[in-house]
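Researcher: Sequence recovery benchmark, item below. Answer with residues only.
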């Protein structure tokens, strides 16, 4: 079957010894569970500010919809 990482466009492992560069997130899709309130909502706003595509998963429908409308 071979190496499917290129086919599925899997990101390489994170090298934590290098400084973090948020520009690498532009155009990437990020799933944030519990993203409608609190820390999750903060993470949604932060990653969205770097032109990432965000998928918010949460049981708090109204709060999630309000956050999407805000963004």
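Model:
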């Amino acid at each position: 079957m071979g190496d499917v990482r290129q086919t599925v466009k899997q990101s390489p492992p994170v090298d934590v010894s290098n400084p973090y560069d948020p520009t690498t997130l532009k155009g990437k899709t990020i799933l944030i569970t519990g993203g409608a309130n609190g820390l999750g909502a903060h993470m949604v706003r932060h990653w969205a500010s770097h032109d990432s595509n965000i998928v918010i998963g949460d049981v708090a429908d109204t709060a999630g919809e309000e956050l999407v409308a805000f963004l």
